[in-house]
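Let's do one together. I've listed all components of the complex below, 792 residues spread over two lines.
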Amino acid sequence: MRIMHRRILIAHGERIAGLMGCLCLLIALESRQDLRAQTATAATTTASTAAGTSSKDASSADVKTSATGSGLKPEYEIQVDVHQGRFMGNLPFDVSYALWTEVDPAVSRFEVRYIPIAEGEVVEENDRRWDAAPAYYWRRLDIEASTALLIPAPILAPPAAPVPVPAAPRKTVTTTDRTINRTKVTATGKETEDSRDTKIETKDEPPVPAAAAASGAVTAAATPSTKEPEPKAKEHAYVMMPPLDPQHYYAFRFTMIVQPSDRQIATFQARVRQILSFYLAQIRILLTEPDVLLLRTALNQEILGLLATGQKVSDPMFDPAISYAQFQTEWGAPITAILNAQASHALFETQNMPKDSVAFKKNIDNIAASNELKTLISRATTLRASDGAMAKQYDTSGRGLEIADLNSTRRELLASGRESFATITDVPMPDELAVIRKRQAVYREYDYRLTLLRSFLDFTASKYPNLVSATEQAAVDALRDPAGDIVGAQTAIKYLIADLDQLHDAIIARNNALDALVARARYAGVVNQAFQSSTIGTYDLFRNWYVGTDVGFVWAPAIGSMLPYIGTNIYLQPINKDASLTQRGSLGYRFAFTVGATIGRVRDLPSANTSFLFDRALMLGAGFRLTQSIRIGGGVLLFREQNKSPLISGTMVSATPYTAMSLDINLNDFSFRTLFTPFQ
Amino acid sequence: MAIQFAQMPTSMPPTTRLPGNIIVTIPIRNTGNSQSATITITLDPANNIMFESLTGRSRTYSRAVTVPNGEKTFQETLSLVQGNGGPVMAARLDISIVGENSSTALALGIIP
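Okay, and this is what the predicted structure of the assembly comes out as:
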């Protein structure tokens, strides 16, 4: 085959026909693009626009997001069923795209990680490789600038009340929540079975831990009285993903962190407090490592029983895997404080108070058993009717004089602090601190009465020394002596009140130490869902892997004029024509071999009798994409020409180099937008 | 009434690293006739902690005290060392007033 370097003439009519054919083709493609444009709404914006200038990556990714979700190409926005662990569509490659899913307002963080895997490999949720994989996440109210998604705040801001979310015109697959009960409400909040687009899906408040809810043993103090907020509508969480490589397998892990409400935390902590209090009260001896292991095992079993599936206590100290040394460092001080408070409580409740009560009862028994005292009071009662001074002192000291009449039962109650008075406000008994305060009030009352009694005896001894006999007066004087039973009883009362103060302080100290531990017990729902997928998809997605349509004009120096042609471009790797060349613009994404044929006839005028390819020229070459669709290329044109030798009547195959400019298009997805995309 | 603890004994510091010194404060009150008492501090063998003094290591510390009527606070400085067993999270010091039926257990945090 020899290369021809001579002028090729083209029949004008055929050239016009070829140009008209190309024009018709482009018009048809443009009409197709218009049809597509009608389905896209004006609300569609690019992520780069929506995110402002904070995300360069999003800006270059040409990824569309929309508040309405309408008119979006499915390759750019893929719904995820996080509970089933799968994409609701094909997994694209080469392009950045937004993953979105419906999330409950309680979800405070939505995270996506992916790692390349081998074909058929299964990666579990707790695989170590996840830790090294970059995280692409969405967080409410705390949007950080990152290479991951930045969606405008209006989309992220949680609605104050259920609001309608316009249904996307594209097919929407509703996620199936396995753990959350849902109700369907309209924009007005009324329950309905209507399936119109104004309907949204909401769910009830995040589940209360089953055991906690069932326990019902939550103290009023631990449970806020605030009313639960109204259920909020689900939100769409968007996470921008970087381009994936074609023909790869990937494992994905979605993580949703659900923050419980304050009420749920309070309920949980109230139960944790009960558990901690119960187990720590059992500690009587040492805290060796085996002891601590038993304690922690019991604690964790109880606490984990409060949590629903997927919920974890956020403080690592509740993690059984934490080392003994770390547990010792973190919990040593509060647990020691609790143990000392318990020891103090036991010391004063079981040792000091019984001793002091016995001493007090002994004194009060002696006072009540004094017949001399009773005689004195009896004569003073008689005298008060005729003696104004006595009457005044008697009335003043009346409550103190009652001590002489206390029977044994009341004295027993008094010694134990269980005596009550109508003048002392009854305090609800379940509160141990209230009981202590009440007992102290009783003791203070009797301390006052003893003071009144002693004052009365001092009065009678000084003003009425002959009211009783000398012997009787001596016995009475023994009672009011500083070393006597009245002062002794008051001393015992002082110690009893001090003992109760120690009990009070021990309870407070234990409660404070317990509170410090319980405050660390906060849980969060952590839902991890891992699954495998690949960018090796269906034929529809990857039909342009190797063959693209090429339409353009070819120019060969030997011809000196342009010819329309149609051909195919053969890439050496999968090509996603939706991918921006700024993201995926390496040689492999731009270079392709070209095979085509001219539309116009090529005839060698001196020997125009050709029949090769119906007088068309075969193009063999290669090209390079300058933009998404515009390509330049070169190669050789093969055509059959009349043999130059007049002695030979046959034809021969000739070749000539060419250059071409063409449109590398996907006939189904052609758009003039890509055609005129600036040089990239 | 007799000689007994007026308040719960305390340790300073409440948590210590071994070997280390602690000061145990013991408030005592006397409401009886006798003014003599003996304070003992005992370490359980399972504590794996011992007292260390010039005379050697032991698990019992004892001291005779005089307690007048009213309250008096005693402070005992103790040197603690690790025994041969494993570590403990908190050690228990049994403190008692001999003959008065008054005793308590003070938990001492141990820093690993």
